[in-house]
Predict the structure.
Amino acid sequence: MAKIQAGEGGEGAGSADAMSDLSAIPMFRDLDPATLRAVRDELQWLTLPGGSALFREGEKSDFFYIVISGRLGVVIESDTDEPRFITQIGIGETVGEMGMITGEKRTATVMAIRYSELLGFSKAAYLSLALWIDLGCCGARNHRYQRCLPS
């Protein structure tokens, strides 16, 4: 499996813009400025060369990712057959969020179809942000995120 490059910005032109204007990303659009700053502080910028795996089927689900540039492919691997292509994930879409929330292992392998840049959000950061929102620390409750909190 390829090593994911983490860093401040990466080689893509949009990296600084994506980190500075998170409100342009649909899942963060309704968050107030204080919450956006809290989210920005928790995100990790990742670059993934084409052909590299972001994660593999059966691995621990401890992050979810937002595609900033590039394209990812989702495949199901099996012992008997060739890997089966399921779908593609493009700019602005997320991957890995359900496994991260539920704690289930990865149900598919996700590979970069071409060079891709992603924002990674850890489960710890997600739970911290969810608590921040639930407690009203951001000045307004965002019920879209509350429904994903563990009970």
In short: Residues 1-14, 138-151 have pLDDT under 50 and may be disordered.
